[in-house]
Amino acid sequence: MVQLNNLRENPNLKEIDSLGVFHVFEYQKDLSVTPLTASTAYFMHEMNLRRRQVLCILNGNLVKTQAGAMQFTAGNVQMTSGVKGVGGFIGKAFKGAVTGESLAKPEYTGSGYLMLEPTYKHIILERVETWGSGIVLDDGLFLACDGKLREEIVRRTNVSSALLGGEGLFNLGLSGQGVVVLESPVPRQELIEFVIDNDEVRIDGNMAIAWSKSLTFTVEKSSKSLIGSAISGEGFVNFFRGTGKILMAPTVFGTEMNTSTTKTDTSTASKGILGNVVKAMTD
To answer: What is d(CA 142, CA 102) in angstroms, rounded to the nearest whole number?
Structure first.
């Protein structure tokens, strides 16, 4: 039997969220500072830039994590690579290559504790079953999930969606019943949630970080006219159609503003007239 002390009773460590076996802890202050780093640590604290960790309490459960995410395990906890045989290795390698995730997702099971590495990103817990037939994640968001969730590769409906929409051709999809842990540059309270019922949402830029698998995602001209799309400054926008949900970040780069990229820069925002012609030819 293992007992964890100075965790829940630590006044500097606050449990800010929990769902299923996952518990999110946040350090209220960074106490490990020097005179040279004290002012930086102070302003980081004031701007909500704090370290966060996920504790998984296992009781016969199976948890998958991103490779290298484990900080420690305690108790009767076993780890496997999550790769079963040569065929499994090839399949995992392909998934990792096309989705930007790690080749293998280690699996932990047993009775005890699994603590993930601290991060300054924001931790978001989502129940996959509330997303309908499944959830599709933007690259780099996956941190951990219940082992009973099914992984799959979700492909864009057309190649131009990847080439012109600022996204990859493939994304990681999860389906089933369980919890997924997301490592987001944006806190949950800043994310805009769209709930769509047989309708559509247009997003200018790759600001959607997660969406329902049931939605059709394409990249299309903002206007029916090629010239109209080019001169409007909008160019191509991401279309989500159907019934489901979308989580959208407030800006393209999360909470960071990039002043070099503006709507008036038609070479990047609208891809120019040539880009519109190429899009029309490839669809």
So the answer is: 10
Sole residue written with tokens 């399949």: 91
The three-point CA angle 70-76-79 to 5° equals 40
E-strand ranges in the chain read 13-19, 22-27, 52-65, 70-80, 107-116, 122-127, 135-137, 142-146, 150-155, 170-175, 179-184, 192-203, 208-212, 216-221, 236-248
Q: Are 214 and 244 in contact (CB under 8 A)?
A: yes
Average pLDDT over every residue of 39-43: 93
**Residue 194: both structure tokens together:** 């769209």
Instruction: Tell me the two tokens of residue 75.
Output: 């108790």
Tokens of 168: 């990859």
Q: Give yes or no for residue 216 having a pLDDT over 60.
A: yes
DSSP-assigned beta bridge partners for residue 46:
none
Distance CA 245, CA 96 (A): 25
Q: Which CATH superfamily is domain 13-31+53-282 in?
A: Mitochondrial biogenesis AIM24 (3.60.160.10)
Q: Which residues pair with 7 in a beta bridge?
A: none
The span from the CA of 36 to the CA of 177, in Å, is 48
Q: Are strands 107-116 and 22-27 parallel, antiparallel or unpaired?
A: unpaired
The whole-number pLDDT of residue 157 equals 60
**Structural domain spans, the chain:** 13-31+53-282
110: phi then psi, degrees, rounded to nearest 5: 125, -155
What is the pLDDT, as a whole number, of residue 100? 52
Each residue of 54-87: b (16+ CB within 10 Å) or e? bbbbbeebbbbbbeebbeebebebeeeebbeeee
Closest by CA to 105, choosing from 128, 127, 83, is 83
